[in-house]
Structures are given as structure tokens and as C-alpha cells.
Design brief:
Layout lengths: L2 E2 L8 E6 L7 E6 L9 E2 L5 H37 L1 E2 L2 E2 L4 H29 L5 H12 L12 H11 L7 E3 L5 E3 L20
Antiparallel strand pairs: 1-4, 2-3, 5-6, 7-8
Helix pairs in contact: 1-2, 1-3, 1-4, 2-3, 2-4
Length: 202
């Protein structure tokens, strides 16, 4: 499979901005009879797939770092709230159950940070790590939760943050792609992902 650079202003290309929940920039790109000069070929003709794999590996770890940053921000917000809100005459952060939630969040974040940093270092040093990239993606994003605790994934972090703040968290359903999503009702407050302002990238 070849990899080719295409000028976005080339005749026959239609680019349509998409509205996303997170507010990030995504576009629908349609190619209709687009002509590209041979000079735009990147690398050998039959090596485009391998080149793309390397790019996707780095992109995946960048996304993992973004999620670690977002999870850290969620923990910081939950811990600060636990210090400010009072119940039964004292801050809720003094209750052991709330402390457990915050501790579990911290353990989940540190595990995610470790695997993300390790794989980022391996990519930087050109050490083969395709398998570990997949491990990092699964661990940090929560794509594979079968044997993990509630705090070991990104979704587990926001769930525990809600519990630390005393907010009811709904059970998770599955979307069309098989990923867990929250069931919402008018009686539930739930933020499935942090807003763009809450994300702190490394």
C-alpha cells in the first residue's frame, strides 16, 4: 500500500467539518477524481503501510498521554472538592470511603502514566514495541476491562471521581462499537469524558 501526500486544495477534494462531543477538530474528506503527481509518493511504493503503522503508534501514545493528563486533572478536581465540601460537620475528604476513591484514582493514573512513558521512550529510541503500544491503548483507555479494577482505566477514573464527590453514577451500557457508555436519565448527572478545558496534555 503506498503513502501519498495530497494537497487539501487539489481539485476534487471536499472537506467538511464534523461536530464532535469533545470539540476536537475532525473532518469528512471526500476524494472525487483527484490527481496526484508521482513526486508526492512518500517512501517506497510498497512500504506505505509500514510507514503508516509507525505514525499510528506514535499517535496512539500521544492520545494515551492526553488521557493521562485528563485523568490527573479529574483527580485534582475531585481531591480539591473533597477538601471543600463538608458533611456531618467536617470535610468529606476526612471520610475513609472518599479517601479510598481518591487513592484508587491515583493508583490508576500512576499505572497509566508508567506504561505511557515507557512506550513513549521505546518509540523515541526506535525500540520495537508494537505489542506494548496496544497494551498502553487498552490499559489507559479502558478498551479491555475484563481483569482490571475500576480505577485501572480512564473511564474508571471519572467514575471514582463522581463517587468521591457523592454524585450518582449510572451503570455502563455499550454503544454500536461495543464501547462502554453511560446510561443517562434526567435524575443522573454524568460526565463521560472531561471537557477540552479539563484535558491537560503531557
Amino acid at each position: 500500500m503506498p503513502t501519498i501526500l495530497v494537497d487539501s486544495k487539489s481539485p476534487g477534494i471536499k472537506i467538511t467539518p464534523l461536530k464532535t462531543f469533545a470539540g476536537d477538530k475532525q473532518f469528512e474528506v471526500v476524494f472525487d477524481g483527484v490527481k496526484v503527481p508521482a513526486a508526492n509518493l512518500v517512501g517506497p511504493l510498497d512500504q506505505g503501510g509500514k510507514l503508516l503503522e509507525k505514525i499510528l503508534e506514535k499517535a496512539a501514545i500521544c492520545k494515551c498521554a492526553e488521557m493521562v493528563g485528563g485523568a490527573q486533572r479529574v483527580l485534582d478536581m475531585a481531591a480539591e472538592y473533597a477538601k471543600e465540601r463538608e458533611q456531618f460537620g467536617r470535610p468529606i475528604g476526612s471520610f475513609q470511603a472518599v479517601q479510598h476513591h481518591c487513592s484508587n484514582m491515583l493508583m490508576g493514573i500512576e499505572g497509566s502514566r508508567y506504561v505511557t512513558y515507557k512506550v513513549a521512550w521505546m518509540l523515541n529510541e526506535n525500540v520495537p514495541c508494537a505489542k506494548l503500544v496496544s497494551v498502553a491503548k487498552a490499559w489507559v483507555s479502558g478498551a479491555e476491562t475484563g481483569g482490571l479494577s475500576r480505577a485501572d482505566t480512564f473511564r474508571g477514573i471519572w467514575r471514582l471521581a463522581h463517587e468521591a464527590a457523592g454524585i450518582t453514577v449510572p451503570e455502563l451500557a455499550l454503544d454500536d462499537a461495543g464501547s462502554p457508555v453511560p446510561r443517562l436519565s434526567e435524575n443522573w448527572y454524568c460526565c463521560a469524558e472531561p471537557t477540552c478545558e479539563q484535558l491537560v496534555s503531557f
